[in-house]
């Protein structure tokens, strides 16, 4: 075997439990690491540029302790990897990404490596099971979550491997690439991301710290507390999972190993299952990536309204719980899970704007943007995906606010112009009498917008549009 192994880092920005990295260091005297920043891949995915830049910086520091240089370059992955592999004295390793275009890229690269007789190995990525291992008894893919997850989890349990081998120190650093860039060169052009510095630590160590916080303080109440956006009840692990700073196997095992288990633990484990399900869906049904899985929705009478779409993005719809969510997204690169459903439902049902517009906005703003999750969740909300919420299930943003943010703490945090509104009216401030609005110096229509649409009218319009599908 060659003396030098090269690890191609992608969405696996970690040292622990990294199959490709472990294998290279265990089987070669020298290991080098490369990351290829493809600008085309990050077009209109602005927030993640900040997370990626910081993560690479952390990974470079971590790998130095093992005499491994992480070289960052910019360009086309296929061209750079094939150029690296033209040196027959190296072996190449990487972990998979479960998106059709990434798996197709793997096939293209593998074909070239085999043609040139280059030594390589591709490992399972950040997932419990390879997506094509989980099917019904007749070999067809699942379209319903519960039976999918039952089979998937049992499959994983039956073949849990022993502990991963550990990373070994390289004899010395090896230089592989000629043209390098600095991790800071990846940062977005606009400096709006600076506010993230005080909110997030995109490091592998922080990922494990957040997991421990989840296991010790949050998970047993997760079944209920995750629904209340003013409470720190969610794991906040999703950006770390997306960027591979922690492996889902690590999370699953830690949850399963808890001595005491309740509905909260099971609810959280099921969230890992939804991620697995989403990856299965987009690979078995790649048409989801460009349109509706349920083809009858191709005839749905969506409304094109650029003004309303812009106000939705800005958090200026006049519905406080919706606006709070949209502002949280812009300010933090993240949004509470229940609120994601509320703002999504509002866009596709109250405003009847195509779910793809919301998917594109989330793609651009979320640290945890993952193609499988984002597409599957938006189609779930819109009613046009697999195992989706029925279209006629329309969240009432007023009731959602009153149920899950009763005192308006979440709303007042992100919509400060409503800070003086009493909790009785916090989710419907337009119902306050004018004299009360004047008394608290919060004039609806001036200091905060009137609702873009009336709930009952919008609901009736959405249901009528849905009924039209059945007539065609």
Helix amount, in percent? 40-55%
Calculate the mean pLDDT score and round it. Answer: 94
- Biggest β-sheet: count, sense, barrel? 5 strands, parallel
Tell me how many strands there are: 5
Beta-strand level of the residues, as a percent range? Answer: 5-15%
Structural class: alpha/beta
Largest sheet strand order: 3-2-1-4-5
Unreliable segments of 5+ consecutive residues: none
What Rg do the Cα atoms give? 24 Å
- Shape field: globular
N-end to C-end Cα span:
64 Å
Q: Helix and strand succession?
A: EHEHEHEHEHHHHHHHHHHHHHHH
Report the total helices: 19
Q: What are its keywords?
A:
472 residues; five-stranded parallel β-sheet
How would you explain this protein's 3D organization?
- The protein is of the alpha/beta class.
- The chain is built from 19 helices and five strands.
- The chain has helices at 19-27, 46-64, 77-84, 100-115, 145-158, 204-218, 222-225, 238-242, 248-256, 263-284, 306-314, 320-332, 337-350, 355-365, 371-382, 397-404, 409-414, 434-439, 455-471, and strands at 4-9, 30-37, 70-74, 90-95, 120-123.
- The protein has a five-stranded parallel beta sheet with strand order 3-2-1-4-5, sandwiched between helices.
- Strand 2 (30-37), helix 2 and strand 3 form a beta-alpha-beta unit.
- The radius of gyration is 24 Å and the shape is globular.
- The termini are far apart.
Give a quick summary of the entry.
With 472 residues, the chain is α/β, with parallel strands linked by helices. Helices cover 46% and strands 6% of the residues.
């Amino acid at each position: 075997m060659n003396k030098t192994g090269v690890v191609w880092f992608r969405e696996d920005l970690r040292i622990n439990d990294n199959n490709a990295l472990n294998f290279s260091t265990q089987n070669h005297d020298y290991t080098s690491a490369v990351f290829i920043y493809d600008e085309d891949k990050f077009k209109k995915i602005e927030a993640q540029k900040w997370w990626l830049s910081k993560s690479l910086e952390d990974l470079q520091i971590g790998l130095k302790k093992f005499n491994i240089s992480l070289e960052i370059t910019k360009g086309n992955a296929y061209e750079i990897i094939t150029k690296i592999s033209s040196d027959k004295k190296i072996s190449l390793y990487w972990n998979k990404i479960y998106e059709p275009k990434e798996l197709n890229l793997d096939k293209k690269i593998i074909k070239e490596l085999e043609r040139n007789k280059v030594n390589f190995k591709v490992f399972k990525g950040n997932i419990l099971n390879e997506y094509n291992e989980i099917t019904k008894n007749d070999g067809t893919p699942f379209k319903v979550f519960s039976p999918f997850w039952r089979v998937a989890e049992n499959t994983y349990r039956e073949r849990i491997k022993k502990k991963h081998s550990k990373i070994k120190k390289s004899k010395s650093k090896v230089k592989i690439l000629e043209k390098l860039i600095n991790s800071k060169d990846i940062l977005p052009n606009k400096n709006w991301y600076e506010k993230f510095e005080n909110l997030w630590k995109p490091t592998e160590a922080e990922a494990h710290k957040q997991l421990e916080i989840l296991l010790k303080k949050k998970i047993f109440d997760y079944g209920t507390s995750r629904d209340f956006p003013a409470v720190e009840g969610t794991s906040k692990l999703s950006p770390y999972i997306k960027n591979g700073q922690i492996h889902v196997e690590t999370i699953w095992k830690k949850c399963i190993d808890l001595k005491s288990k309740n509905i909260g633990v099971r609810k959280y484990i099921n969230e890992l299952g939804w991620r697995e399900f989403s990856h299965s869906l987009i690979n078995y049904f790649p048409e989801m990536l460009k349109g509706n899985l349920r083809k009858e929705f191709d005839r749905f009478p969506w409304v094109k309204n650029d003004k309303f779409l812009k106000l939705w993005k800005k958090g200026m719809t006049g519905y406080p719980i919706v606006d709070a969510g949209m502002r949280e997204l812009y300010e933090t690169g993240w949004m509470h899970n229940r609120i994601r459903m509320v703002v999504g439902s509002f866009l596709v049902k109250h405003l009847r704007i195509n779910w793809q517009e919301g998917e594109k906005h989330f793609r651009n703003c979320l640290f945890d943007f993952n193609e499988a999750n984002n597409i599957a969740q938006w189609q779930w909300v819109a009613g046009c995906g697999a195992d989706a919420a029925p279209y006629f299930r329309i969240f009432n943003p007023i009731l959602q606010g009153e149920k899950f943010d009763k005192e308006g703490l979440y709303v007042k945090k992100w919509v400060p112009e409503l800070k003086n509104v009493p909790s009785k009216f916090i989710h419907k401030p337009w119902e306050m009498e004018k004299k009360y609005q004047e008394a608290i110096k919060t004039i609806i229509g001036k200091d905060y917008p009137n609702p873009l649409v009336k709930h009952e009218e919008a609901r009736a319009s959405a249901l009528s549009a849905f009924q039209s599908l059945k007539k065609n």
